[in-house]
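Pasting as-is:
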Amino acid sequence: MSIRVLLADDQAMVRGGLRMILEDQPDITVVGEAADGAEAVELARRLRPDVTLADIRMPRLDGIEVTRALTAGPDPLRVVVVTTFDLDEYVYGALRAGAVGFVLKDAGPALLVEAVRAARSGDALISPSVTVRLLAHLAPAAPPRAPVPLTERETEVVRALARGRTNQEIADDLFLSLSTVKSHLSHVQAKLGLRNRVEVAAWAWEHRLAG
C-alpha cells in the first residue's frame, strides 16, 4: 500500500521539489499540500496522511506547533520536520513535541525518502550526522538526578539508538533478533513514558548515556 504524505511548507517551489522527489518513488503518494501551519493542521486532520512533512518556519503556526497539534490525543499522526538548520533549537523543540524525525532540505532525495519510509514503519529516522549532533549539542551537562530505571540490556539498546544506529544495526551489534530489539525499545518507551524512538534518543542524551 502506498505511503500517503502531506507536504507543509510556505514556499511553493520547495513543495514542488519535495513532491517530485517523493512521487518518483513507487510506494509514496503526495495527497496534499499546505502553505502554512494552520492549513497543515486542518488538511492533516481531514486527510489523515501516513506522514506529514512540516517545515520548521511557517506563517500562522510553525513546525513545532503543527507537530504538537498533530501528535496530541489518542490518535496521533506522524510528523517529520524539514529544516535548513542542522543545529536549530526549534528542531529540538519539535522532536520534544512528538516529531518522529527531521531532515535537512539539502540532505538529498535519498534521506528524504528514507525519513518518510521510516516514519511510516514506526522506525523513526535518527541520522548520526544530524540528529545525534543536535541532541549532543543541546544535552545538559548535569548528570541525571535519579538512577536510570532500565535493565543492562535495555541501556545497551538505548545507547546504540542514541548514537544513530538503526534497529537492524543494533540487532547485529548486540547479537539479538530484530524482534527482540523492537521489544526492548517498546519496554523502554513504556517505562519512561516516551512516545517514540526520537524521544528515547533525546532522553539518552539528557541522561548522558550516549557518550
